[in-house]
Amino acid sequence: MRRSGIIAAAALAVFSALLLSGWGGPAVLQLVSNLGSLLFGGAALGCTAAAARSSSGPQRRAWVALAAGLAGWVAGDVIWAWYELVLRETEAPFPSVADVGYLLFPVAACVALMTFPVGYTRQSRLRLSLDGILVAGSLFVLAWALGLGEVFSTSVESVSTFVVSLAYPLSDLVLLTTALLVLATAQPAQRASIGLLTAGLVCMGVSDSAFVYLVAEQDYVSGHPIDIGYAAGLTLMALAALRRVPNHQGKVVASLSAAALWFPYLLLPIAIGVGLVASVEEANDLPTFVALAIVIAAVLVRQFLVLADNRRLLETMAAQALHDPLTGLANRTLLRERLSAAMAADRAGDRSLAVLCIDLDDFKLVNDSLGHAAGDALLVEAGARIRGCVRGTDTVARLGGDEFAVLLEDAPDLPIEVAHRIRQAFDAPFVLEGQPWVVLPSVGVATTAHAATADVILRNADLAMYAAKRDRGAGVATYAPDMALIERDETDFARLRGNAGPASSPVLFDELRRALEAGDLGVVYQPKFACPSGEVVGVETLVRWSHPRLGPLPPEVFLAVARTNGLMGALTEFVVTRAAVDAAQWRNCGRELGIAVNLFAPKLTDPDFSKRVLAILHAYEIPPSWLTIETTGEIVLEHRARAVAVLRSWREHDVRIAIDGFGDRHSALSSLPHLEVDELKLDHTLIAAMSSNAGAQVVVTSAIDLAHALGMCCVAKGVEDAITARLLSDLGCDVIQGNHCSAPVLAAEVLDVAPLDLTAKPVSRDS
User: Fold this and answer.
1) Which CATH superfamily groups domain 506-751?
2) Active site residue: 285, 368, 402, 660, which one?
3) Which residues form the EAL domain (predicted)?
4) Is 402 annotated in the active site?
5) 222, 33 Cβ separation under 8 angstroms
6) Which end of the chain is more exposed for a tag (fewer CB within 10 A), N or C?
7) Considering the entire predicted model, what is its pTM?
């Protein structure tokens, strides 16, 4: 492009120098002008034809249209040169057949401009054409009244000459206006090409206007300096074709600025005023009258287009206000309107009306694991599956998040049958990011039997849905009057402490999710002491939640909710982040302490999760060797091959791995030789029995020896008395922790924890 620009500039400079210098006299100038025009026109035609061949879609059509216009222009130049160079006429006749080719150019150029893919619809292209007519007509009226009319009336000898002479400035005005408006709305990638094209059209338009004036005054001859304007315009158009951009993909919406909207109307009041005055003073001023009539007609059509656009915009806005933008389903507002209308029409109570409230189980797990894009894809597919289970006359709505609703009016099937049909539609797994995911819905059914208003039936369906979510067996429940809101509050929490599982608390899950997002969870640290020195060598990170309504919750309660509902990944990242922040502060105070974090077993085999944890450490400049990941033997039993590979990956980044709870029912003794772990952490139940059970002491001694034999550090947790602490130290245990050593403390208190004295002889319980 740069080399072509230099060559074009050099050729234009030589051409301009020859014409301006007058070198060789009129005959030479005539030859230079004709041959130069053919050269520049042919170059522009060749470049636009090449652009058309290498483009596709709207851009190809645009370049083809411009090439057709330039072909007409070159044909006109050939005819003009034939008259002057072959027939040896002193000047080509005007008008002539050449003018047909010349006047074809602005028409084709207008078509090309409106075809370029800058987001124009058919209506916007028509509006653009009308804007060009408005500006061109207004400028023509002003120019005619200010002297152009007098020049034509005194100089033009025939009607044909008059018509052709007027066609040049009029077509150029329309073309220039169109080019400026297209440039104003062009996308950034297209502005360079369209800008060069517009500049070329300006040069051509100015030269055309000067040509018509000189012809009217009988002062034009080939080789006149205005021919430089034609050459410059053709050169700029050739460069525009060379500067073209790749085809745009998709639909780009063009938006007009305020200036572009007002621009066509700026000269209109002045033109109408001047035209009316001229019409009164000169009753037979036909050109002014015709131009004003065309302008007024364009204004009227333009206003009709505006009204039509406004109507379409209002319809679109109304549809958007009542539909979900992601799934295209009805939204809560439209559902409530239709439900209220249906209930109002059913005053006799003889119609069958039902509302189904649908919530996707474990949807948060999809978002946490695959990202929000996959979650959105799941919602779209879920909406389509629900839509396929009901009639076209039924209303399917997305209420927000992963919650949907269906309004059934006079359905031939019982609502409970439709609910089970929807549930069955989710048996087939969703394919997300190339992976199969089974996501099942919980469906609540409510009818008008227990509801007098739309709000009540929606609430009842919501309560039934929560009942279905608590009972994950059938996944469908019908509202009954004994379903009260209390089931979603304190009673739900009470069940957590009893036999009901944590998954039966959707409200607690939602509150935990909100607390996690707001950073309202707390973190405490239990110090770990080296044996036999008693120095603090690290801390175990423990998460706490003080519920705003229920008070401090036991970790086993809210951690079970997090595991069941897919929050463990986000919860662990929160804990690691808080621990990294606090470790950085301790380092600033001169203490380098290791941090141990418990990891939900399935997350250990997730390579993406390990990358996120390492990124957190890097962000706070914490060496990975300071972090110890604690997991249970459960992961070894269920995912041995995967566990070995991922554990090795963690250790390659210097992260320490600890097998927690060794000695409980999940212990994987046979797998220890195959695992690359750094610590073996003895379960608190085993430690608690040491001081009173000789057999337990033998097991602990063997476990310590086993850990050392395998090159592992042995850690004992749950140390509750001095006798056990001293005994573990004497047996060679490397690290101990427990309430006797130190209860969990806040981050600000960690550095104040005193070393543990393991040399003093403990007082026996019997003394």
Assistant:
1) EAL domain (3.20.20.450)
2) 402
3) 505-758
4) yes
5) yes
6) C
7) 0.43
